[in-house]
Amino acid sequence: MQAELYNQSGEQIGTIELNAYIFGVEPNVTLMHQYVVMQQANARLGTHSTRGRSEVRGSTRKLYRQKGTGRARQGSARAPHRTGGGVAHGPHPRSYRLNMPRKMRRLAVRSALSVKYAAAQIRFIDDLSFERPRTKDTIAFLNAHGLEGKTLIVLDSKSEQNMVVRHSASNLPKVGTLLASYLNVRDLLHYDNIVMPQAALTVVESILGNGTGAAAAVSEEE
User: Where is this region: Disordered (predicted)?
Assistant: First the structure.
């Protein structure tokens, strides 16, 4: 399968061969949902904590005698129904961590990439670099490619050149950057557009591919 390849100025310079094992699979919606649930659960700190009736400050002495007062019977001031009392069945620190087998995680990411590719929401470019960190350079790049809405720029590494790109996009609320090795379902589905340079595509295919990737095979237009 093929996709159009553009340069940084927004001009199509050829086509690129894509690995159908990554960008052409039948989307597994159930796995993608399970992956996102796992991500959201693992993002929870689980530090919530409440005090029960045995932990709150105060005496356990009975407030007044059981009979003879004409009032409703009462026990300890720590009882949950009293102001300042303990919390009944309240939350305590716990781990919400979930996990998925590696093959399932990778299939979920490949499903998300296939969904974005089928919707023509992935823009493949030969290279992306700026001379220095400037927000206006990122805006000019997005305008040149006609990218509107939330856009994710996938980077291949933490090189100095990529860090300039990252800083140039950091002030734009609808633009995010992510290393190709950290590609995940939540980010892929959250952003409207995915910008993927060839270097990042090579990393993606090395991680998710089946050994038949052709990220470097480019046919130049006449």
Answer: 47-97
Separation of first and last alpha carbons in the chain? 20
pLDDT single digits (tens) 162-212: 999 999 999 999 999 999 999 999 999 999 999 999 999 999 999 998 755
Q: Which amino acid does the sequence have at 183?
A: L
- The string of pLDDT tens digits covering residues 84-136 is 999 999 999 999 999 999 999 999 999 999 999 999 999 999 999 999 999 99
Q: What share of the chain is helix, strand, coil (3-state, %, to 5)?
A: 35, 15, 50
Asked whether the beta carbons of 202 and 215 are under 8 A apart, the reply is yes
Taking CA 85 as the corner, what is the angle to CA 79 and CA 87, rounded to the nearest 5 degrees?
Answer: 90
pTM (two decimals) = 0.84
Determine the Cα–Cα distance for residues 139 and 218; give it in Å rounded to an integer. 27
Query: Could you tell me which residues come within 8 angstroms of residue 168 by beta carbon, excluding any fewer than 6 positions away?
Result: 130, 133, 134, 135, 137, 138
Quick count: other Cβ atoms within 10 Å of Cβ 180? 21
* Residue 105 near residue 34 (C-beta atoms within 8 A): no
